[in-house]
Design brief:
Layout (H helix, E strand, L loop, with lengths): L5 E4 L11 E8 L5 E8 L9 E11 L6 E10 L3 H10 L3 E3 L14 E4 L4
Antiparallel strand pairs: 1-7, 2-3, 3-4, 4-5, 6-7
Length: about 120
């Protein structure tokens, strides 16, 4: 990163705002193909762990073909906000406090940092 360069990090969550839950969605393509998904976010196990899992059930539809059902599991990390700030500082970056209102506050974390000018 050049001096004065900026990096924006947007982890899905920090320990302070993490919430297990579910989500779903999908779309239909103009060519007749369709996709639907169920996302299931599990609490860290054991409690207090720095990782959690997310299961995805994905249903794919292609005209003239049988439905295809796919399961995908991800293991993700979740860390306290202080850990993110400490690691940014230890890597030589300066954490920037932004005054922009985050419409997703409480749902998503965001950090801005820059390399100090020489």
């Amino acid at each position: 990163m050049r001096p004065g360069g900026v990096v924006i990090l947007t982890p899905d969550a920090t320990t302070e705002i993490f919430e297990p839950g579910t989500d779903h969605g999908g779309h239909d393509g103009e060519d007749g193909r369709s996709l639907r998904f169920l996302e299931w976010t599990h609490a860290p196990d054991p409690p207090g762990s720095s990782t959690y899992t997310v299961d995805y059930a994905i249903v794919l539809r292609t005209p003239g073909e049988p439905l295809e059902i796919v399961h995908d599991r991800h293991t993700l990390g979740v860390f306290p906000e202080a850990t993110w700030r400490r690691l940014l500082t230890e890597s030589g970056l300066e954490v920037v406090d932004t005054t922009v209102e985050n419409p997703y506050a409480g749902e998503q974390a965001a950090f801005a940092a820059r390399r100090p000018s020489a």
